[in-house]
Amino acid sequence: MRLLLGAAVTVVMLSLADYAMAATPVDTVHDALHAFGPQAAHFGKLWNIFLFTCTAVFAAILIALVIALRRAPPADESSAADLSNVNRQEPALKRHVTRAVVASALALVALIVASVFTDRAMARLSLVNAVNVEITGHQWWWTVRYIDGPNASDIFTTANEMHIPVGRPVIIQLSADDVIHSLWVPNLAGKKDLIPGRSATLQLRADHPGIYRGQCAEFCGLEHALMGLLVIAEPQDQYDRWVAGQKQPAPEPQDAQAQRGKQVFQSSSCAMCHAIAGADFAGAQRGPDLTHVASRQTLAAGTLKNTREEMAAWIRDPQTHKPGTAMPATPLSQEDLDAVVAYLGGLK
Predict the structure, then answer these.
(1) pTM to 2 decimal places
(2) Residue 51: how many CB atoms within 10 A of its CB?
């Protein structure tokens, strides 16, 4: 009974943890059992093989345990110890153990062969016409840098959101800025660790349009569960328009309130951490790039929906929404806060 209760509690805790990690203020796909790309499909097949094999082994162990219990003579605390098998050969038991060891070894070899064939199949996937992206993990957000194109003007940076064209492979160079992270977009690929001082490569492809949630899958600190990454797969023409827009510098504010917001942003601590391309404060790298922040779906790595109300709440007191984040509260008057939100809300 205690074992069953413990197992039930464990399942509930894992379910709650999974729900917390999958919670996103916008509708996304986040399900490891449904593949939307070839890499995830291969992982899904390998997962099914492991699940079937491990289930069969577990069932065999339970059956053997039940048979052993039924064959054992009834006894209680007053029964004398059964020493009849001491110093006596048991050829039948030896044969059973040998068969079990051989069967376990064959099962392990089969799983290794399945893993090798899965790796081999994924290595043979075409990478022609791939999109090349660099992703860097920070506590607790992501830098996404597109590096295709022969000119420096073709390179641009965004944060916490990656757009990819449907049907084209994507090669992602991974790195970490502070601690170990791990990127996992379960519907598109397996997870890959990001280790400080080292680089890794992850390949994926989305064969269906959609918004797929990625997640840091390696505990990296207090707000690890709120380190989400949206992967938005869209048709090629829509993706091309998005890329063309991202390469443009931030638009100049058009109305007086937004112009005042730019001045407040520049004169306050905001400009010390956040870059905005085309403005006078484009070199900061401490926080996410905000050049086109208004075009993103969420704020704070998937924590809040990107509305002006949520943006104001985040600027006013980010610790309420993401305790431990590096961004401090910004003490602005209501007038200045509205102006900054008007400025950032125009950066599309």
Answers:
(1) 0.84
(2) 10
